[in-house]
Amino acid sequence: MPDSEVAWQLDGEIAHLKCGPLVGRVELDGLGTRFVVNTWNGELADAFGVLVTAGPGPRPAILEVGERYVRGADYVATYAATRENPIVPHFYWRAKYHAALQAVQIEMVMSVQTDLLDSQPEASINSLAMESRLFWTESLLERRFEELKGSEPTRQIERGSSGEHLFVFRSERLGLSYAQLVHPTDFVAAHVHSKDGKPWLVESTLFTDRLEKGVIRRGRICGWFLPAENDLEVAVELARQFVEEPLPLTT
Q: What structural domains and CATH numbers belong to the chain?
């Protein structure tokens, strides 16, 4: 699918997206930003809430939204720098349809910068899916997935030797899966938990190093919506493509 066929439409705080079989939206307001699925192949598929973040901390209770605009296949949004929010996050949302694999790719690039001489820009990004099974692998080469079970309701996953940590949420009711990978060069840690019958939540951490004035730091996290059939094999193929491609321009 060419970039010209990725359709973003701005409507106040919401950026609506049509890409292949997916209709969804990016919400960005004073509480943060998130991607929500509306439909898949024309059927209601509102079980997924992914790439949810308020950017780096510390932050005020309500963020001040800066500019929003669409550029090609990108939706770009920023928060304004204020005295209470000196570490400014910029978000680049990128959509792509992999027609041969029937998969829709949603990449979020978060960049941070500040006028402070020294700061700590750590940020968390959360993703969940209702009534789903959750699979995880720490190697795109070995392709050995482990299904996380309710008997182990929480797990802390550290970087390890490669930083390749691929998660796949599978909704068998919808026949739809969501795979997610933080780029290995940006992966710090992930906290996975599910308690009291609640859905699995994957919380990924970015930017644990100090940030100096004048420095721009970027983190990349990519998600894919794809049919549940053969989802683990297809997810690995898509994740390997993402890891091997060059860093995109964000200016």
A: 3-244 (2.70.98.90)
pLDDT in tens, 80-104: 877 776 777 889 999 999 999 999 9
Q: Do 175 and 228 contact (CB within 8 A), yes or no?
A: yes
Does residue 134 contact residue 200 with C-beta atoms inside 8 Å?
yes
SS3 content of the chain, % helix, strand, coil (to 5): 10, 55, 40
Report which residue type is found at 133. Answer: R
> Residues with Cβ < 8 Å from 98, sequence gap 6 or more?
104, 105, 224, 238
CB 201 within 8 A of CB 126: yes
Instruction: Quote the CA–CA distance of 95 and 104 in Å, as a whole number.
Output: 7
Residue 136 has which token pair? 């995880």
d(C-alpha 250, C-alpha 233), whole Å: 30
Given a cut of 80, whether residue 156 has pLDDT beyond it is: yes
| Full-model pTM | 0.91
Nearest to 137 by CA among 94, 192, 198: 192
Closest CA to 26 of 58, 63, 69: 69
For β-strands 201-206 and 123-129, DSSP reports them as: antiparallel
